[in-house]
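U., I forgot to send this yesterday:
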Amino acid sequence: MTESENDKIKQQFREALDRKNEKNAGPGSATAGDSKIHHTHGSADHKREFRRKSG
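Result:
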């Protein structure tokens, strides 16, 4: 391969990597109102009770 072909291939890989990184951006890059989390779970109003099976 020639030098220009190598540069062209490297550029294509860089562009593909940039597209991938934009798609998989972290939660800090989300715009306002775009969160997948709508409600958080608060503390339960009672203590959870565990019982053994009897038979």
